[in-house]
Write a structure and sequence with these properties.
heterodimer, A: alpha/beta, Alpha-Beta Plaits, Rossmann fold, 8-stranded mixed beta sheet, B: alpha/beta, 2 domains, 7-stranded mixed beta sheet, 6-stranded mixed beta sheet
Chain lengths: 452, 421
C-alpha cells in the first residue's frame, strides 16, 4: 500500500497573509467569500503567530466515529475523509468531534465543509509563497510497517511523551522476530521490555546484559548462531551511558573485531532512568542531578564525547546518527544498518529527548528533537567505509541555538558565556563533520557541492 | 616441581583425531594438559585474553584451533570482562564454552563472574591460580580463586598435570548435569602446575565422547528465536511475587550446589570406568586409617605433603592427610567423617582469610570439626604465597607443630610457613 498524502503546515514560516484561504475559496466556491474557505489561518496566542484550522485527514478520525448517519468515511484509496451530502443529516456532531477545526458549518451552503485536498492537487499549497504549506507523503512509515507485527507488548511503562518507546517499537517491527534483543540497564528495560517478576514485555528473545557487556554477550550469541548457519539479528537497544561510558570497552572491542551486530544507542544525554545523572554524552552546560546548578557550579563543565564519530574511527560497516523527529530518515538508515550486519559491525546513534530529565512539557518532545537538528546541535549523517561520511539532512540555514536551549529547563541557568561556548562548540563540530564529508573520493561531485 | 618456561612446543604426535581408540602417552605441562582437555570435550567456543601464568594455555588453545585439533570458534577479545560475557551469550545460544584466567584477570571478570551461576549456565573455566595484587606479584597462590569462593561457582583444585586434563573434561559432565546446572572452575596452581611438565595419558577420543554424552547447555534458559523467552527479568522488591521468586532462585542454586556433591563423586567414578584414571572427587584420604593427627591440603602442595607423610610414617609419626579437591561446595560431611578419629588437625592454605587472620580452608575445616562431638585442637598454616615453594621440609614442620597439639585443648596462632625462608 502506498502512503497517503496530506497537507503539512509549518507555523514558523506562516506570515498570516491569507493567500491560502483566497486560493481555497477560488477553487471551492462560486462567490469567493472567505467564509467558504476550508483552510483557516487563525491568530495564535502569542503575538504574530499563526495556527492552522483544517482537516488533518486523521488516521483514526473522530468525526467519522461521531457521525450517526455514516456521511463521513476515510477513503482507503486516497486517505481523504470524504463527506457524503446525500446521507448527511446536518447534526453537526462531527464539528464537535474534531479538535482541529477541520470540519465546520457553512451557513450559506447550509452544510458542513471540509478539505478534500482538491483531489491531490491542493490550491492552497500552490498559493503559499512562504513555504508554510507543503503537500507531503506523511504516512509512508505507517503504511509500510503498520502491517508488521509489533513485537513489544502493549503497555510499556515509558514516561509520558517519551519518544524512546516509539523508536523501540519501530525498530523491532522492522528487524522482525528472528532476533535476539539485548537491552542493558536503562530506560529501554526500565519500561518493562525484559519484564518484572515473571512477566515479559517482548515477544522475542530478550535479556538484560550487564550495563558493561552488551556488545560482548551479543558477540557470543551471534557467533554461535553463525556457526550453526542461522541468520539471526543480534540487536542492542542501549542507552548512551552504557555505550559511551562503562560499556564502551566491550563496544569498541566488538566493533574492532567486526562482530556482525546491530548496535542502536538511544541517546538521551545521561542516565535518565536512574534519576538523570551525567554521562559522557551529556552536553556542556546541561543540568543533571550530578552536575547541579548552584553558587559554585552551573551544569556540566565538559562537552559531550562524540560517540558516533568514535565509531566511525573504528571503520564500522555502517555508522549513522538519527533523530526521533525524522523517522523516515531513521527508517532509511535502519534498512542500511540491518543490511550492513552481513558485513560487519553496524552502529546507529539516535537522539531521543527526555521529557523528564531535560525538563520540558511532554507534548514538546518531537519539537525539541526537531529543533536540535535544525539548529545543528545534532547533525544527521551516515558513514560507510566505501562511501565515507555524508549529511542526510543538512541544516544549511540553522535556527539560532537559543531556540533549542530555551525549549528545555535543563539549560535555564545558562549565562551568555556558556551559550557562547555552546555556539562555538557547534560551529567547530559543523566544520569537523563537513570536512569529513568532503573527504570521500567516491563522489564525482566537487566536495563543496556534495555538502549543500 | 620447579617452574618451567611456557615455550614448550606442541607434541604433534598426540592429536586426538589420531587417538580414537588408544590412549596416547605424552609429556606436557598443566596449561597444555588443560588445552588437551578442551580438545577432548567437544567445545564450541573459546574466548581468550592472556594473563600470566595462564597465557600459554590460551596460546595452546589458539594453536589447537588454528591447526584444526579443536573444532571451535576462537573469540580473542579485549579483556577478561568480555571473555566471560561472550561465553555467557554463547551458552545462552546453546554453546559449550571454555576459558581460563587468573589473578587481576579474574578480578576484572568479577561482574559477569558473579552473574553466571544465577543464570545456571553450565560453563567451565580454569583458574590458573595466582596471588592477588597488591603487593605486585605474578606468581602462584590461591588468593584469586579464594576471593570468589562465595560467588556460587563450583571450584575444584587439581593436584597433578593428569588431574588437570581429566578434571577439565569431567567438569562439563558435572556442570551440565540437570541436578546441578552450575559453572565450574577447574583450579590449577600457577607456576607449579601451569609450567610443571609431567607424563600424562591422553584418553582416546572415543571413550571421552561416550563419557560426555550429548551436549545439553541451554535446555532451561535460552536466547533463541525458536524458543522466545525473557532471560533474567527483574525480580525482588517488597510487595508482589518478587521476593518469593528471588528466594526460590537462591534456594535452588543452593540445591544445585548440594546435588553437586553427589554428582561429582558419580562423575569421577564414571571417568575411571571409561579411562581407568582414578581421582578422588571430593576429598582424598591418604594414610588416614590409623592416623593420630592429620593435615589438610589443597592443590599441588599435596604432592610434597604426601612425600612428607610417607617419610614421617617411615619414622613412626602417626600422620595422615586429607586432600580437598572440591572446595565449593565444601564437602563438610566428608571432611568431618575423615577427621572423626584424629586428635589434632593442621590445615595448610595458599591464601589468606583477612577476616579471620588464618587460611580460608581452615575456617571451612573448623565448621566441619564442629560437627564432631569431641573438640579437636587445630592450627592454620599459610604458605606458598606468591609462588613460594612448599617443600617436604615445610610439611615436616607442619606435622611437628600439629602433633604438639595432641592432648591440648586449643590450637594457636596462624603459622606463616615461608616467613623465614
Amino acid at each position: 500500500m502506498s502512503g497517503y498524502n496530506t497537507i503539512a503546515f509549518d507555523a514558523g514560516r506562516c506570515t498570516g497573509c491569507g493567500e491560502c484561504m483566497d486560493a481555497c475559496v477560488q477553487a471551492k466556491s462560486e462567490d469567493g467569500d472567505l467564509a467558504h474557505s476550508r483552510i483557516r489561518i487563525v491568530a495564535g496566542e502569542a503575538p504574530d503567530t499563526w495556527e492552522l484550522a483544517m482537516c488533518r485527514q486523521c488516521g483514526d478520525p473522530r468525526c467519522v466515529q461521531e457521525c450517526p448517519a455514516a456521511a463521513l468515511a476515510k477513503n482507503a484509496e486516497s486517505g481523504v475523509i470524504d463527506w457524503n451530502a446525500e446521507t448527511c443529516v446536518g447534526c453537526l456532531l462531527c464539528t464537535v468531534g474534531c479538535t482541529y477545526g477541520g470540519i465546520v458549518w457553512d451557513e450559506s451552503a447550509r452544510h458542513v465543509i471540509k478539505c478534500d485536498t482538491c483531489g491531490g492537487d491542493p490550491a492552497c499549497v500552490k498559493a503559499c509563497g512562504e513555504g508554510a504549506l507543503k503537500y507531503l507523503t506523511t504516512s509512508r512509515i505507517y503504511n509500510e510497517f503498520g502491517d508488521l507485527e509489533d513485537l513489544f507488548v502493549p503497555g510499556l511503562a515509558g514516561c509520558q511523551g517519551c519518544n524512546t518507546e516509539l523508536l523501540m517499537r519501530h525498530t523491532l517491527r522492522r528487524v522482525g522476530p528472528e532476533v535476539v534483543l539485548a537491552t542493558p540497564p536503562g530506560c529501554v528495560p526500565g519500561m518493562g521490555s525484559v519484564g518484572y517478576n515473571g512477566l515479559t514485555g517482548s515477544k522475542v528473545p530478550v535479556f538484560h546484559p550487564l550495563l558493561t557487556n552488551t556488545a560482548s554477550m551479543l558477540t557470543g550469541i551471534k557467533r554461535h548462531y553463525q556457526r550453526q548457519g542461522r541468520d539471526i539479528v543480534a540487536l542492542a537497544l542501549a542507552g548512551d551511558g552504557g555505550a559511551a561510558d562503562v560499556g564502551f570497552q566491550s563496544l569498541s572491542g566488538a566493533a574492532e573485531r567486526g562482530e556482525q551486530i546491530l548496535f542502536v544507542v538511544i541517546d538521551n544525554e545521561g542516565y535518565m532512568n536512574t534519576g538523570m545523572q551525567r554521562s559522557g554524552c551529556t552536553p556542556y552546560g546541561a543540568w543533571t542531578s550530578t552536575t547541579p546548578v548552584g553558587r559554585e557550579a552551573h551544569g556540566k563543565r565538559q562537552d559531550a564525547k562524540n560517540l558516533p564519530l568514535i565509531m566511525v574511527a573504528h571503520r564500522c560497516a555502517y555508522v549513522a546518527t538519527a533523530s526521533t523527529a525524522f523517522m523516515e530518515d531513521y527508517y532509511a538508515k535502519l534498512e542500511r544498518a540491518i543490511e550492513a550486519t552481513h558485513r560487519g559491525f553496524s552502529y546507529l546513534h539516535v537522539y531521543s529527548p527526555c521529557t523528564t530529565g531535560w525538563r520540558f512539557p511532554a507534548q514538546k518532545n518531537i519539537e525539541v528533537a526537531r529543533k536540535a537538528v535544525e539548529s545543528n546541535f545534532v547533525m544527521l549523517w551516515e558513514y560507510t567505509p566505501e562511501e565515507g561520511l555524508h549529511l542526510t539532512r543538512p541544516a544549511d540555514d540553522p535556527r539560532p541555538i537559543e531556540e533549542y536551549l530555551e525549549a528545555q529547563g535543563k539549560y535555564r541557568h545558562l549565562d551568555a558565556d556558556q551559550i557562547a561556548h555552546i555556539r562555538r562548540h557547534i560551529d567547530e563540530n559543523v566544520e569537523l563533520i563537513r570536512n569529513l564529508c568532503a573527504r570521500p573520493a567516491a563522489s564525482p561531485l566537487p566536495a563543496r557541492t556534495a555538502l549543500t | 616441581m620447579n617452574a618451567t618456561p611456557a615455550s614448550a612446543s606442541l607434541d604433534r604426535s598426540a592429536e586426538p583425531r589420531d587417538a580414537q581408540s588408544k590412549p596416547k602417552i605424552m609429556v606436557c605441562d598443566g596449561n597444555q594438559a588443560a588445552a588437551w582437555g578442551v580438545a577432548l570435550a567437544g567445545v564450541d567456543m573459546v574466548a581468550v585474553y592472556p594473563i600470566t601464568p595462564q597465557s600459554s594455555l590460551v596460546e595452546y588453545l589458539a594453536k589447537f584451533i588454528a591447526e584444526g585439533k579443536i573444532d571451535a570458534q576462537l573469540v580473542d577479545v579485549e579483556g577478561e570482562h568480555s571473555v566471560l560475557s561472550v561465553l555467557q551469550g554463547a551458552a545462552l545460544a546453546g554453546a559449550r564454552t571454555y576459558t581460563a584466567t587468573c589473578g587481576p584477570g579474574l578480578a576484572f571478570m568479577f561482574e559477569p563472574y558473579v552473574r553466571g551461576p544465577g543464570m545456571r549456565l553450565p560453563m567451565v573455566m580454569s583458574i590458573v591460580t595466582r596471588d592477588t595484587l597488591t603487593p605486585q606479584s605474578v606468581w602462584g597462590g590461591h588468593q584469586d580463586a579464594m576471593s570468589v569462593r562465595e560467588a556460587g561457582w563450583i571450584q575444584m583444585y587439581c593436584e597433578s598435570v593428569q588431574e588437570v586434563l581429566d578434571t577439565v573434561v569431567m567438569a562439563y559432565r558435572i556442570a551440565e548435569h540437570h541436578d546441578v546446572m552450575l559453572p565450574v572452575n577447574v583450579c590449577h596452581d600457577g607456576n607449579y602446575l601451569s609450567y610443571g611438565a609431567a607424563r600424562i595419558e591422553l584418553p582416546p577420543a572415543q571413550s571421552v565422547a561416550a563419557f560426555l554424552g550429548p551436549k545439553d547447555v541451554n535446555w532451561h534458559v535460552a536466547l533463541d528465536p525458536d524458543r522466545p523467552m525473557a532471560v533474567d527479568p527483574l525480580t525482588g522488591g517488597a510487595g508482589g511475587p518478587g521476593p518469593r521468586m528471588f528466594v526460590n532462585y537462591r534456594k535452588s542454586h543452593c540445591a544445585g550446589m548440594h546435588h553437586a556433591l553427589r554428582v561429582i563423586e558419580e562423575v569421577h567414578r564414571d571417568w575411571e570406568a571409561h579411562t581407568g584414571h582414578r581421582h578422588a572427587g571430593l576429598i582424598e584420604r591418604y594414610r588416614m586409617e590409623d592416623a593420630q593427627f592429620a593435615v589438610m591440603t589443597l592443590g599441588s602442595m599435596t604432592g610434597a605433603a604426601k612425600d612428607a607423610v610417607d617419610e614421617a610414617r617411615e619414622a613412626g609419626v602417626p600422620v595422615g592427610l586429607v586432600k580437598v579437591k572440591t572446595y565449593r561446595p565444601f564437602p563438610t560431611a566428608a571432611v568431618a567423617e575423615a577427621l572423626a578419629g584424629v586428635q589434632a588437625l593442621g590445615v595448610v592454605d595458599r591464601s589468606v582469610d583477612f577476616g579471620g587472620g588464618c587460611g580460608p580452608m581452615y575456617r571451612d575445616a573448623l565448621a566441619a570439626l564442629y560437627r564432631l562431638e569431641r573438640r579437636i585442637p587445630s592450627l592454620s598454616f599459610i604458605g606458598g604465597l606468591a609462588g613460594a615453594d612448599l617443600t617436604v621440609e615445610h610439611f615436616h614442620r607442619v606435622f611437628e607443630r600439629t602433633r604438639a597439639l595432641v592432648g591440648s585443648a586449643q590450637g594457636g596462632d596462624t603459622v606463616w610457613l615461608n616467613e623465614k625462608d
